[in-house]
Write a structure and sequence with these properties.
The chain is of the alpha+beta class. The chain folds into 4 domains: about 110 residues, no CATH class; about 80 residues, no CATH class; about 55 residues, Membrane-bound Lytic Murein Transglycosylase D, Chain A, CATH 3.10.350.10; about 130 residues, L,D-transpeptidase catalytic domain-like (Beta Barrel). Helices cover about 35% and strands about 15% of the residues. The chain is built from 13 helices and 15 strands. Strands 5-6-7-14-12-11-8-15 form an 8-stranded mixed barrel. Strand 5 and strand 6 form a beta hairpin. The longest helix is centred in the N-terminal third of the chain and has 22 residues. The chain is elongated.
């Protein structure tokens, strides 16, 4: 009998403890609410709904001893978070944490409904990353490894280079050739350099602008590179204004000599007198360099100058640019074409003759008079001489689309308006240098 009574007493203690523990605040929220992980919302517990005891059949299931309970998800430090031991279990974070623990236990027990619920929760776009990772790992079967979590790459802010605004630094940054034409920063530096020369006098600006144009001439420029062409055209246009105003100023006698127009004089006669002094000029040269638009309208007593420095031309094959110099300063820059398959030799020519309305002597021996549709020379031909090369020169073209390409039989092709101007002022015996600079 004593043993029977003692057994009843023990059973009563166990049963009372069971219900007391299941209804204690440690196993239910203070607010009497349940958490639905699928919606991340709290729902009121009905008056007749009892708290779920922790000693439920699922917890007593052999599944609790399965390897899934040893998965990294259930052993995660987050499950041992201080938040679970915090007195504020009524907070939303604590409620969600408890709900996740319960769902993890059900997943460990391989409940199909739990797996469906977990998949539904994972479909939420606003699910926090840590909860997503724990649910994904909780869905793993025994023996599976957790999926690596994507590493969030934080893009470093772009470093914006500050471009210089002082001319010496800009000129250094531009380099020695036209590579700057092929980059946004390079073209911006060239624009700034040109802008800085705007406040300078012509005498100060022209040497700097000559230097900029020489850099444009050195290195490749393809015909289809319209951005580079536009940058060069802008520089050429602004330079021409300066050159006409300074180099072609008849009152500017720097590096020049002058003669006075006498009775019966002509520009041809004055040019002949300059040549006797060793200055290679022609009447057209004097007209351009003295801004004489009508050679027949010169006045007695008018001063006409001629440069003491030589006039010469430089063709840069890779850029398809031809520059004409008076001494060290550029006077003109033109776009040109030249020989296909590199037929224009890198050498030094001299102007041998200048012919208006020239016939064309084709390679096969045929001769086509000026005006013949098969004559490819145009209205003007400047003939070159060289001890090793013959048949070369500069001329216009009925095919302006070939300017900027290697398409001729070796001669320099020019736009009609450009060859007309060059024909006028480039004197006989002037040198024409052909280069292939990088």
């Amino acid at each position: 009998m004593r043993q029977f009574v003692f057994a009843l007493l023990i059973a009563g203690i166990v049963v009372g403890g069971y219900w007391w523990y299941g209804a204690s605040p440690a196993n239910a929220s203070d607010s009497g609410e349940l958490v639905d992980l699928g919606t991340m919302q709290q729902s009121p517990r009905s008056a007749d709904q009892k708290p779920q005891p922790l000693a439920s059949p699922a917890l007593a299931s052999p599944a609790l001893a399965s390897p899934a309970l040893a998965s990294p998800a259930l052993a995660s430090p987050a499950l041992a978070s201080p938040a679970l031991a915090s007195p504020a279990l009524a907070s939303e974070a604590s409620l969600l944490e408890q709900a996740l623990v319960r769902l993890s236990v059900r997943l460990a027990a391989n409940e199909p409904a739990a797996r469906d619920e977990a998949q539904r929760i994972l479909a939420r776009a606003d699910l926090p990353k840590d909860l997503r990772a724990r649910l994904q790992n909780g869905l793993l079967q025994p023996g599976e490894s957790p999926q690596p979590q994507p590493v969030e790459v934080v893009a470093k802010p772009a470093v914006v280079e500050v471009l210089p605004n002082d001319l010496p630094t800009i000129l250094v940054r531009l380099g020695k050739n036209n590579a700057f034409l092929h980059t946004v920063d390079g073209r911006e530096l060239a624009r700034r350099a040109l802008l800085l020369t705007a406040s300078m006098s012509d005498e100060q600006a022209i040497p700097i602008m000559t230097d900029l144009l020489e850099r444009c001439m050195r290195g490749p420029i393809q015909k289809q590179d319209t951005t580079a062409h536009e940058a060069v055209d802008q520089l050429i246009a602004q330079y021409r204004i300066r050159a006409d105003r300074y180099i072609c100023d008849p009152a500017n006698l720097a590096r020049a000599r002058s003669l006075t127009v006498g009775n019966g004089d002509s520009l041809q006669a004055i040019a002949a007198r300059f040549r006797k002094e060793g200055l290679q000029v022609e009447d057209g040269t004097l007209a351009v360099l003295n801004r004489i638009h009508n050679p027949n309208a010169i006045q007695i007593g008018q001063r006409v100058k001629a440069p003491v420095d030589p006039i010469f031309a430089v063709l840069e094959k890779r850029s398809f640019l031809l520059g004409v110099y008076v001494g060290e300063l550029l006077l003109r820059v033109y776009w040109v074409g030249h020989g296909e398959n590199d037929k224009t030799p890198v050498t030094e020519f001299a102007v041998a003759d200048k012919i208006a309305n020239p016939p064309w002597y084709a390679p096969d021996g045929q001769v086509f008079a000026y005006g013949d549709p098969k004559n490819i020379l145009g209205k003007y031909f400047i003939k070159f001489s060289n001890p090793s090369y013959s048949g070369f020169g500069a001329h216009g073209t009925p095919m302006p689309e070939t300017i900027g390409t290697m398409s001729s039989m070796g001669c320099i092709r020019m736009y009609d308006k450009d060859i007309e101007e060059l024909y006028k002022f480039l004197p006989r015996k002037a040198k024409v240098l052909v280069r292939d600079s990088d």
